[in-house]
UniProtKB/TrEMBL annotation:
<dbReference type="Pfam" id="PF05618">
    <property type="entry name" value="Zn_protease"/>
</dbReference>
<keyword id="KW-0464">Manganese</keyword>
<dbReference type="InterPro" id="IPR041107">
    <property type="entry name" value="Rimk_N"/>
</dbReference>
<dbReference type="GO" id="GO:0018169">
    <property type="term" value="F:ribosomal S6-glutamic acid ligase activity"/>
</dbReference>
<dbReference type="GO" id="GO:0005524">
    <property type="term" value="F:ATP binding"/>
</dbReference>
<protein>
    <recommendedName>
        <fullName>Probable alpha-L-glutamate ligase</fullName>
    </recommendedName>
</protein>
<keyword id="KW-0479">Metal-binding</keyword>
<dbReference type="InterPro" id="IPR013651">
    <property type="entry name" value="ATP-grasp_RimK-type"/>
</dbReference>
<dbReference type="InterPro" id="IPR011761">
    <property type="entry name" value="ATP-grasp"/>
</dbReference>
<dbReference type="GO" id="GO:0046872">
    <property type="term" value="F:metal ion binding"/>
</dbReference>
<dbReference type="GO" id="GO:0009432">
    <property type="term" value="P:SOS response"/>
</dbReference>
<dbReference type="InterPro" id="IPR013815">
    <property type="entry name" value="ATP_grasp_subdomain_1"/>
</dbReference>
<dbReference type="Pfam" id="PF08443">
    <property type="entry name" value="RimK"/>
</dbReference>
<keyword id="KW-0547">Nucleotide-binding</keyword>
<dbReference type="GO" id="GO:0005840">
    <property type="term" value="C:ribosome"/>
</dbReference>
<dbReference type="InterPro" id="IPR008503">
    <property type="entry name" value="Asp_endopeptidase"/>
</dbReference>
<keyword id="KW-0648">Protein biosynthesis</keyword>
Amino acid sequence: MSEQASVTDPFKVGWEEWVALPGLGLPALKTKIDTGARTSALHAFDIEPFGPSQAPHVRFSVHPIPGREDVTIACSAEVIDRREVTSSNGETEWRYVVRTDVVLGDRTWPIEITLTDRGSMAYRMLLGRQALADEMVVVPGESCCQGVLDYSAYHSTAVQAAAPSRTLRIAVLSREGGAYSTRRIVEEGAARGHVIEVIDTTRCYMMINPLQPEIHYDGARLPRYDAVIPRIGTSVTAYGAALMRQFEASGTYCVNGAEGIVASRDKLHAHQILSRSRIGMPATAFAASPKDTDNLIALVGNAPLVVKLLESTQGKGVVLAETRRAAQSVISAFRGLKANFLVQHFVKEAGGEDIRCMVIGGRVVATMLRRAESGEFRSNLHQGGSAEPVKITRAERDTAIRAARAFRMGLAGVDLLRAHDGPQVLEVNSSPGFEGIEKATGRNIVAALFEEIEKKVRPTVARRRSPRAEAANR
């Protein structure tokens, strides 16, 4: 082999090139190669730092196609530095610096890049001399030496599906930061690289206006969140629902909306929704007048029957009346307390057992059988019941999914009874606990919840333009 043949040809780079930043989900960027600039720069707006001080992150949005503000890519990255940078026009600003791989032709290497708004610039990215390898030769008179990419990549479903997972900022509305379910959300979210912030529902306050709904917390306005997971206690349902409506108005993805939370907490309203959706449930009756007590009992098929407070939870405020006289006494006592309640048929064949179905994103991800302790008819784990994994029938699965859908919930604990005439829904819980079902089934329920959140907040594929408009932007 001759000495001349052994010499590697230089890697030629023109004054402009097409590059990709796969780590940021940017498959095509027309870039200016600027050896006069030391640092590289990427167009970014809505730049927002977040996360703990020992591991700061930044999230930002990019319009990768000049003149196309309808195409927006949401990005996030770990912050490696913050530097004062002076641009070519003499303006100085502090910029966040991130590290990511750049692809140019058949070469891939890591670079440091600063984030700044280049919306008025012809090029969405500038590649400075610090990012160029020693063997690269910049040829000022040539363009796109390493090939041409296409902006149509941003319209590709496959490209969007392959986009890297980004760090999300997620709020958990909970007054019990030390509770098992809240701790699991924080731990699992951190393990997946997200930033989770637990917010005490009652310490939030709202600014209600037509232009920009705001939520404040401890004297400061809350930042924009990618998603909100409500863990709202029954004692603050009304205020928690108001907060959720505020988050919904700002465009934040809410795992469960205010409408479903409020409806599920009111037993009467909940059963009316189930009835309207033709979902099986025990015969249920409600009346306001004490003169209707006997008719009320007769409507559900006489004793034994169950009397429930409309806002009961965890089996509290639920009484089994085994005889007609006992039912009359319980109803009389509830009315004496001016409590709202309903009367329900007792499904004896269930034998003190019910099934908790955890429904996430329209699918049942785990099921457990809850069994009441001896002498007790309530199978709630908080009432001493036991739990074990169980296989459910197709009818039971369909019923659970339909029930969650009826309340428009992304996360629901649906409780079913096995009756002679098919599955019957007892309750749809908007803040189901994770401890019992994770221990009983050995499944990571919270991971399934985050998978659904990550899918929901993924940016959608941009709309296609006409071929003429596409050509004009290449």
